[in-house]
From TrEMBL:
<keyword id="KW-0012">Acyltransferase</keyword>
<dbReference type="GO" id="GO:0008652">
    <property type="term" value="P:amino acid biosynthetic process"/>
</dbReference>
<keyword id="KW-0808">Transferase</keyword>
<keyword id="KW-0028">Amino-acid biosynthesis</keyword>
<dbReference type="InterPro" id="IPR045304">
    <property type="entry name" value="LbH_SAT"/>
</dbReference>
<protein>
    <submittedName>
        <fullName>Serine acetyltransferase</fullName>
    </submittedName>
</protein>
<dbReference type="InterPro" id="IPR042122">
    <property type="entry name" value="Ser_AcTrfase_N_sf"/>
</dbReference>
<dbReference type="GO" id="GO:0016746">
    <property type="term" value="F:acyltransferase activity"/>
</dbReference>
<dbReference type="InterPro" id="IPR011004">
    <property type="entry name" value="Trimer_LpxA-like_sf"/>
</dbReference>
């Protein structure tokens, strides 16, 4: 085999397109443009700005610095500087949130052919109502931290949970987004929840209702649908789905405001990869749902649902052994 030449460095060779190739580009541009302008394809060609995903993520980060002071900032805080720090962050947060809410409601009005009225004033009022909710949101988050420490022996302390637990981060973003849903802010809550999903692989619809002391252990693959109701002191493990039953193709708009996802009462534990579906499905208080269980019907309080032990087959060394687990 002959010696091969090793080529290194940047490619500086100029490549010329075949004759006539560029002549096709204007026609493709025109076809795309017609699709957008005649309404066949979704686009945002409007006189008002849509909320910025980057700015919404910035709002989440600002909320972290406000609600967990000292954890997500390089500044060293002291009791004497705490109020100044929180006040400075809050002022920026208020302005940024009001600006993005304004974009969201103006965009929504235009989408639905409504006439905007006092959008700027309404945006600041919504932002203020949200800020008023921050102490109660922080109280809930403290209960979520305590639930994590109580439910996971591997959790060394609250600092570790705040810094590194994906379940707490997803819950934190959910609690912000859910409050914005309650305040009837469009678009922004879903941007928030999708960002949390990108970070954690935990998908919590901001429309779900979740009580205090909520704990997601490990977390990846958890799905919580929009009309799910979860009580207090509920614990979920990775891969749990609280979803809807299969719907007809044309059912989206008809069932949008209907209860489609299950209700989980207080003190329930749901283990890994369990799937619970349907708006009429209720998991009674203090019940336990085992791993890999599939449920589409209700169970009463104090009930344990588990799969029958699987039959394991061991192969090797010329022998075969069957064992029930």
């Amino acid at each position: 085999m002959g010696k091969q030449e090793i080529i290194t460095g940047e490619c500086n060779t100029e490549v010329q397109p075949a004759e006539g190739y560029f002549s096709e580009v204007p026609g493709i541009v025109s076809e795309l443009t017609r699709g957008f302008l005649d309404g066949r394809w979704s686009s945002h060609i409007e006189p008002v700005p849509i909320p910025s995903r980057d700015e919404v993520i910035s709002i989440i980060n600002q909320a972290q610095r406000i609600l967990f002071p000292g954890f997500f900032t390089p500044d060293i805080l002291s009791p004497a500087s705490l109020e100044y720090h929180v006040g400075q962050e809050m002022s920026l947060f208020y302005e940024n949130l009001a600006r993005q809410v304004n974009c969201a409601i103006r965009h929504d009005c235009l989408r639905h052919d409504q006439v905007c009225s006092q959008c700027g004033e309404r945006s600041y009022r919504i932002a203020l109502d949200f800020i008023r909710s921050l102490p109660s949101i922080r109280e809930q988050l403290e209960s979520d931290i305590e639930a994590t420490l109580a439910g996971d022996p591997a959790a060394a302390n609250a600092d570790e949970v705040i810094f590194s637990y994906p379940g707490l981060f997803a819950t934190f973003v959910y609690r912000l987004a859910h409050r914005l849903v309650e305040l009837e802010v469009p678009i922004i809550p879903r941007i928030m929840s999708e960002y949390a999903y990108h970070r954690t692989a935990i998908d919590i619809n901001p429309g779900a209702r979740i009580g205090d002391s909520f704990f997601i252990d490990h977390g990846a693959g958890v799905v919580i649908g929009a009309t799910t109701e979860i009580g207090n002191r509920v614990r979920l493990y990775q891969g749990v789905t609280l979803g809807a039953l299969s719907l007809p193709r044309d059912a989206g708009k008809k069932l949008r405001d209907k209860k489609r996802h299950p209700t989980i009462e207080d003190d329930v534990i749901i283990y890994a990869n369990a799937i619970i579906l349907g708006g009429d499905t209720v998991i009674g208080a203090r019940s336990i749902v085992g791993g890999n269980v599939w449920l589409t019907q209700s169970i009463g309080p104090d009930t344990k649902v588990i799969l029958k032990p699987a039959e394991l087959v061991y192969l090797g060394n010329g022998t075969k052994k069957t064992e029930e687990r």
